[in-house]
Amino acid sequence: MTRAILLAGGLGTRLRPLTNTIPKCLVPIKGQPLLDIWLENLTRAGISPFLVNTHYLAEQVKAYIQSSSYQDQVRLVHEPKLRGTAGTLIANLGFFEGEDGMLIHADNYCMADFQAFVHAHRQRPSECLMTMMTFRTDDPTSCGIVELDERGVVVRFHEKVASPPGDLANGAIYLLSRELMRVLATDLRTVNDFSTEVLHQFVGRIYTHQTSRVFMDVGTPAAYEKANKSAGA
After folding, report:
1. CB environment 175-214: b (16+ within 10 A), e (fewer)
2. Which is the most buried residue in 74, 139, 171, 231, by most CB within 10 A?
3. What is the pLDDT of residue 138?
4. Model-level pTM?
């Protein structure tokens, strides 16, 4: 079993007023809470158990998990002050029990084939310490755009720049090797943000897997409306 940490404690400020009363991880997409979509698709792919961090409106997330069919598979970790994406990961590296594991920014609408993602990670070049999920975006300037070599290994990042060289975006879903976790636990144990403080240190050692299925940011009212009108898988 591949274990997964789902980062779900964000404030969802861009999605207000909807997130004034509901945490972003529970906003409904076609009537189904976003976090429920993640847990359903990951479980179907044989990925579990899960660790989910909470912060904003944490009691709602706790109540949802306790009433869901996933309650026995989810460990909730409350953060009175958000640790940051890398901070949460590093504080909970023990959850992976020394095995490769998944780190997910669970604030997107994603219908990817996670079995294919795991398979790609297992076939990665030997020097690669992680595998990143990528997708084609309609708005490259709002995303982290990646450049790859002929093998699918990241050679350059372009983080929300005016004229990025392409539309292949970082989906902020990662499969992390045990070797990478050892580096995080030692050399990088004080970092807070995964995107800005970790990724750039491993350029040339990050394999990628592109999903062709629905992958959408739901961070703004317009994007949220688009996700609810999308065709689904």
Report:
1. bbbeebbebbeeebeebeebbebbbeeeeebbbbbbbeeb
2. 171
3. 86
4. 0.94
